[in-house]
Amino acid sequence: VQLVESGGGSVQAGGSLRLSCVASGLTVRNYCMGWFRQAPGKGREAVATINSDGKISYADSVKGRFTISKDNAKNTVYLQMNSLTPEDTAMYYCAAGSYVDCYSGSWPSWGQGTQVTVS
Predict the structure, then answer these.
(1) Which of 2, 14, 44, 47 is most buried, with most CB under 10 Å away?
(2) Half-sphere exposure of 19 (CA within 13 A, CB side)
């Protein structure tokens, strides 16, 4: 399994970015896919998840600003991030797990991360 993130960068507060996670070795349609982030000196935070049944969840801190989606044809998961604030600055990671992993918090597959910096 390989997950490759892209789309990070530097943006001013109020701006937008769209992160992409291209998966190989698994079919995103059949997996729970998630976006996580970790800021320097802080723990890892679940940002958004989308399960194989289409159920979506968001961290309270990003509700109304971030949108997670899947493109099954491209085997890719996206995270659209709008109204970014400096508090969103972090390394963002894509993760994949089974349907149950989505609820258990056990994520066996991770990407290498993409940096998002908001100033």
Answers:
(1) 47
(2) 34
Strand partners, 79: 19, 68
7 membership: H or E segment, kind and range: none
- Tokens for 41, please give them: 């000196």
Cα–Cα distance between 51 and 108 in angstroms, integer?
15
User: 45-50 and 56-58 as β-strands: parallel, antiparallel, unpaired?
Assistant: antiparallel
Could you give the CA distance from residue 11 to residue 109 in angstroms, rounded to a whole number?
28
- Over residues 12-52, the pLDDT tens digits come to 999 999 999 999 999 999 999 999 999 999 999 999 999 99
End-to-end CA distance of the chain: 34
